[in-house]
Amino acid sequence: MDTVSEFFFPPPSSLFVNVMTVVSSAVVVVVGLSETRGKNMKYSKFWNNTNNAPKSSNLSARLGMLLAYMPAFLVGVVLLWLFPNEDRRILLLKSALILHFFKRNLEVLFLHKYSSKMVIDTVITISLSYFSSTAIMIYTQHLSQGLPEPSIDLKKIGIALYLIGITGNFYHHYLLSKARKQGETSYKIPKGGLFSFIICPHYLFEIIEFFGFAFISQTIYSLFFAIATALYLTGRSYATRKWYVSKFEDFPSHVKALLPFLF
């Protein structure tokens, strides 16, 4: 515990936060394991056009992803507006989270090309996960005010990781958007950037971004959620590579899922 206290705030005296640290992280990890077993979240290339869900329960992918990201963005904005005079660390965390979801919403509206639907259950699941994790991350940071600061300050490292993550994620989303020409709906093997080595560099940079949140925050909740997110995206990237291999006979064998040359 002495080693942990050098890097992270002590757990707050909140039963809700401590329970949610375990529960929310465990749920995300379980979903990640389901991805590796073929039980994929029904969006993007894993949308099943033959599923038995009523048409009324399906949304366009653009609307679905906007509904998935918007609540988390709004809760960050509202909490920044309601509590604007908190310490530097919490202002950094709020600003980073707001910018993250603001970017996501702009990408949904103006960058990504969609050719599928989303099951409304998937929209609700993703939206609740992002909304609750954002709100709890900020609330946990609020509770940490007044507690002894970790002896090792990771804020600058966190900001660096966050900037690397959000920039790399956007760049590879841009490359993905250019893989298909206007009006095309079929998937292609993406090229450029780290796509030459891994099929999900956008996930890799998102993981880096979430560890940026954790290092800016230096709370146990943010660390657990970053680890859980990494495990979920590992499962998603494994399933994505498996999908590409099944659809493209010429898929390069050296292109891994998430980590160049390794996995």
Offer a concise description of the structure.
This protein is an all-alpha fold and 263 residues long.
Please, could you describe this protein's structure?
The protein has 263 residues and is mainly alpha-helical. The radius of gyration is 19 Å and the shape is globular. Helix content is 64%, strand content 2%. The chain has a two-stranded antiparallel sheet.
Q: How many discrete structural domains?
A: 1
> What's the number of helices?
8
Radius of gyration: 19 Å
Classification by helices and strands: mainly alpha
**Uncertain stretches:** none
User: What's the total count of β strands?
Assistant: 2
Shape: globular
Strand order of the largest sheet: 1-2
Q: Sheet with the most strands? A: 2 strands, antiparallel
Proportion of residues in extended strands: under 5%
The rounded distance between the terminal residues' Cα atoms is 32 Å
Question: Which H/E pattern describes the elements?
Answer: HHEHHEHHHH
- Give the rounded overall mean pLDDT: 90
Fraction in helix: 55-70%
Kindly report the oligomeric state of this protein: single chain
